[in-house]
Amino acid sequence: MSVEGAVNSSETYAGLEVFECQFERFALEHPWIGRRTGDLMLAPRGGGLLEFQHATVFALPDGGAHEVHGEILAWYLTHGGPGGTLGYPLSNEKRTPTGHGRYNSFEGGTVGWLPGVGAFLMG
Predict the structure, then answer these.
(1) 46: left (phi over 0), alpha (psi -120 to 50) or beta
(2) Percentage of the chain surpassing pLDDT 70?
(3) Number of other residues whose CB lies within 10 A of the CB of residue 22
(4) Which of 61, 102, 111, 115 is buried deepest, with most CB atoms within 10 A?
(5) Cα–Cα–Cα angle for 55, 111, 61, nearest 5°?
(6) pLDDT tens for residues 7-29?
(7) CA torsion, ordered 11, 12, 16, 17, to nearest 10 deg
(8) 79: pLDDT strictly greater than 90
């Protein structure tokens, strides 16, 4: 996967260990995401991201890591990812109240997914 504006973690960055701790904790609390498949990458606005088998986890240094996966992740990345108008995720993917769809909340809006429709910007 390529995230626009992301850089490889081998570059010098004073806060890199903050992300390592956030991502390790997230993986322990959410084992369904699987093993790491990529290197820690820096992202726009001082954020970071890390790819796992079943999700990509995004974080800002001052708070929380959240996962995005499947068709919502694909839609999010094609619309700029964390450097786009949606910014960073504010939630993990959740079921809709009806149980028929899924959604993630982001700084700049919400992306939903419904069977037969796919991913879309809500409201």
Answers:
(1) left
(2) 87
(3) 20
(4) 111
(5) 55
(6) 444 444 446 677 888 888 899 99
(7) 120
(8) yes
Q: What's the whole-model pTM score?
A: 0.83
Angstrom distance (rounded) from CA 97 to CA 102: 9
Phi, psi of 18 (to 5 degrees): -60, -45
DSSP letter, residue 53: S
What is residue 18's predicted lDDT score, i.e. its pLDDT?
74
Quote the tokens at residue 103.
């959604």
Closest CA to 101 of 83, 122, 84: 122
What's the rounded Cα separation, in Å, for the pair 54 and 63?
22
Residues 6 or more apart from 2 whose CB is under 8 A from it?
none
d(CA 82, CA 51): 14
How many C-beta atoms lie closer than 10 Å to residue 1's C-beta? 13
Identity of residue 8: N
- Rg of the chain (C-alpha set): 14
The contacts of residue 117 (CB under 8 Å, 6+ apart) are none
